[in-house]
Amino acid sequence: MAGGKSSKNQDSGKGKSNKTEDSGKEKANQTEDSGKETAKPMSRSARAGLKFPVGRIHRHLKSRTTSHVRVGATAAVYSATIMEYLTSEVIEMAGMASKDHNAKRITARHLQLAIRGDEDLTNLVKAIIPGGGVIPHIHAPLLPKDEESPGPEDPEPEKSQEEETDEEAENEDDEKKEKKAE
């Protein structure tokens, strides 16, 4: 029996240490059960699924108001969303322009071509991009005249056999329509 008592004492000793460990686990379980878990802090950008910093934009919106009015939290999220979308559009089109020029890097020239190539972005971005160059454009009066159009001295170009058969078929159709109309 003495051995039994010692085993109980050993068990009770283990039980005490287990109780302290268990009490910590029970507290953790209680917080899980009550729904009040301590979650990792999550940024507003991560919550919105954005790369642009919502908190920083919110801070700048608040500091830039002249009458120091309140700025809603969704205003910063909306602004960050718009800026991220426009940035991705410009970068995508500049990337395509760089591929057209067989370049691996996007330069100021590619940004200029991307922005000026899109009508909406041209209206939005009125700034001059340093190092962007100019958009290639030749005014219509400066272009050479078409050689295909006959001039006053040139005789009328000869028609191919296909064009002659097409005209004959059209003439026959017109004659049939006139007969039906009478």
From TrEMBL:
GO MF annotations, alphabetized: DNA binding; protein heterodimerization activity; structural constituent of chromatin
Highest taxon of source: Eukaryota
The Histone H2A C-terminal domain, residue ranges: 119-148
Record-annotated Core Histone H2A/H2B/H3 domain positions: 34-117
Biased composition (Basic and acidic residues): 11-39
Presence of keyword Glycoprotein: no
Keyword Oxidoreductase: no
InterPro entries noted in UniProt: H2A/H2B/H3, Histone-fold, Histone_H2A, Histone_H2A_C, Histone_H2A_CS
Composition bias, Acidic residues: 163-173
Compartment(s): Chromosome; Nucleus
GO cellular component, one term: nucleosome
Disordered, as annotated region: 1-49, 138-182
Keywords for this protein: Chromosome, DNA-binding, Isopeptide bond, Nucleosome core, Nucleus
Gene3D superfamilies, A to Z: Histone, subunit A
Pfam families tied to this protein: Histone, Histone_H2A_C
Record's compositionally biased regions (Polar residues): 1-10
Family affiliation: Belongs to the histone H2A family.
PANTHER family: HISTONE H2A (PTHR23430)
Subunit structure: The nucleosome is a histone octamer containing two molecules each of H2A, H2B, H3 and H4 assembled in one H3-H4 heterotetramer and two H2A-H2B heterodimers. The octamer wraps approximately 147 bp of DNA.
The protein, known as: Histone H2A
